[in-house]
Amino acid sequence: MPPFTTFTGIVAPLDRDDVDTDAIIPKQFMKSIARTGFGPNLFDAWRYLDVGEPGMDNTARPKNPDFVLNDPRYAGASILLARRNFGCGSSREHAPWALLQAGFKVIIASSFADIFMGNCSKNGILAIALGDGAVDGLFARAGFEAPLSLRVDLEQQCVSGEDGLRLPFAISPFVKANLLAGSDDIALSLAHADEIKAFEERRHARQPWLARPLHV
């Protein structure tokens, strides 16, 4: 995945607590085994006025004019702002896939479900937890006629705005290092490919019967 260093984008304010993964990508869209094509169905039940199903032409569906992502001010938004317990519910990795494929690289919220937060980092999305007061301030700024633009610096662990806003954030050193390097779980394993191969060769030499085919 691409390294994450700094990022600047427009903020879409989703003013809700407890946004669960079924709201992020409803269960009917999980029939696909591909990792692509989920973006148009992000927040499907809130985004459209009809019931979505896989394979539908989303461009022809009636949109909910009251949903934030349908507001022209937030067209092209790439930073999602939410409240407490974002990503709760099931552990489906389709949720960060849908967010990423819809163009979101950063999610800022008061708190996150642990598994969801881990799935975000493994897919190149930076999930930033800030205090309620800081999140309240961002919602106040994002509600003006002109959209709010924020700059996120992962190395410095800081969210900043054009008006002088500066919000430091905490992050696991392990997660930070992986995002900066663009390393997912597969890349982390491949970094030890020689050691893994040597271990398999030693194991095979000591226990060759484990490699024999079973006879039934």
TrEMBL record:
Pfam families on file: Aconitase_C
Chemical reaction(s) catalysed: (2R,3S)-3-isopropylmalate = (2S)-2-isopropylmalate
All copies of domain Aconitase A/isopropylmalate dehydratase small subunit swivel, residue ranges: 1-130
Keywords (A to Z) from UniProt: Amino-acid biosynthesis, Branched-chain amino acid biosynthesis, Leucine biosynthesis, Lyase
EC number assigned by the record: 4.2.1.33
Pathway: Amino-acid biosynthesis; L-leucine biosynthesis; L-leucine from 3-methyl-2-oxobutanoate: step 2/4
Enzyme class: lyase
Xref: InterPro entries: 3-IsopropMal_deHydase_ssu (IPR004431), Aconitase/3IPM_dehydase_swvl (IPR015928), AconitaseA/IPMdHydase_ssu_swvl (IPR000573), IPMI_Swivel (IPR033940), LeuD (IPR050075)
One Gene Ontology molecular-function label: 3-isopropylmalate dehydratase activity
Function of the molecule: Catalyzes the isomerization between 2-isopropylmalate and 3-isopropylmalate, via the formation of 2-isopropylmaleate.
Family: Belongs to the LeuD family. LeuD type 1 subfamily.
Complexes and interactors: Heterodimer of LeuC and LeuD.
Protein name in UniProt: 3-isopropylmalate dehydratase small subunit
UniProt source species: Massilia phyllostachyos
Gene behind the chain: leuD
